[in-house]
């Protein structure tokens, strides 16, 4: 029995042959589409993170003189911001230190993703006050309720 006697078999064999010949190109097209989709997702996540950033002002006291170990501890503290931002791409999770001068007074602002606001608001140095720069975004201290006395 030959393939000519069965209807549609030659068409099926030709289609299978063309698919095998084109499979590397189809695979490359699929990979390119997946790469484009991931890139678009990362771009959207980065833009959203950069649009929603928070900043705190760091105000040192007059006796502020950090030791070398305090500076290392503070740099480690800032490195944790990226981990706190979780699924934000690296470009959107970056920490920015901004130094400005207002009325001949120097200000240090630490800016980072909003998901890491808790870490940014933690003081990294002794003798340093951390202030929120946005109204309505006051840094609230954590208070734990006293445990209830068990009745006997």
Task: Describe the protein's architecture and organization.
The protein is an alpha+beta fold and 152 residues long. The chain has a domain at 52-132: Alpha-Beta Plaits. Helices cover 42% and strands 19% of the residues. It contains three helices and four strands; from the N terminus they run αβαββαβ. Strands 2-3-1-4 form a four-stranded antiparallel sheet. The model has no long low-confidence stretch (mean pLDDT 82).
CATH class of the domain at 52-132: Alpha Beta
Q: What is the 3D shape?
A: elongated
Distance between the termini: 94 Å
- Encode the helix/strand succession as letters: HEHEEHE
Radius of gyration: 29 Å
Number of helix segments?
3
Number of strands: 4
Describe the biggest sheet?
4 strands, antiparallel
Q: What is the strand content? A: 15-25%
Strand order of the largest sheet: 2-3-1-4
What proportion of the residues is helical, as a percent range?
40-55%
- CATH topology heading of the domain at 52-132: Alpha-Beta Plaits
Ordered list of secondary-structure elements with their pairings:
Elements: H1 9-51, E1 53-60, H2 68-84, E2 96-102, E3 105-113, H3 117-120, E4 128-132
Antiparallel strand pairs: 1-3, 1-4, 2-3
Outline of this structure?
It contains 3 helices and 4 strands. The chain is α+β, with helices and mostly antiparallel strands.
Which terms summarize this structure?
42% helix; 152 residues; alpha+beta; Alpha-Beta Plaits
């Amino acid at each position: 029995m030959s393939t000519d006697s069965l209807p549609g078999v030659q068409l099926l064999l030709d289609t299978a042959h063309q698919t095998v010949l084109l499979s590397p190109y189809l695979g490359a097209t699929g990979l390119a589409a997946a790469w484009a989709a991931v890139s678009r997702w990362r771009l959207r996540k980065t833009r959203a993170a950069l649009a929603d950033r928070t900043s705190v002002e760091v105000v040192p006291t007059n006796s502020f003189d950090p030791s070398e170990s305090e500076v290392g501890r503070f740099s480690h503290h800032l490195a944790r911001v990226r981990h706190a931002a979780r699924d934000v791409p690296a470009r959107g999770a970056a920490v920015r230190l901004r130094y400005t001068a207002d009325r001949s007074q120097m200000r240090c602002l630490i800016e980072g993703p909003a998901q890491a606001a808790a870490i940014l608001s933690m003081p990294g140095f002794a003798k340093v006050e951390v202030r929120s720069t946005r109204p309505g975004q006051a840094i609230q201290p954590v208070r734990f309720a006293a445990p209830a006395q068990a009745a006997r």
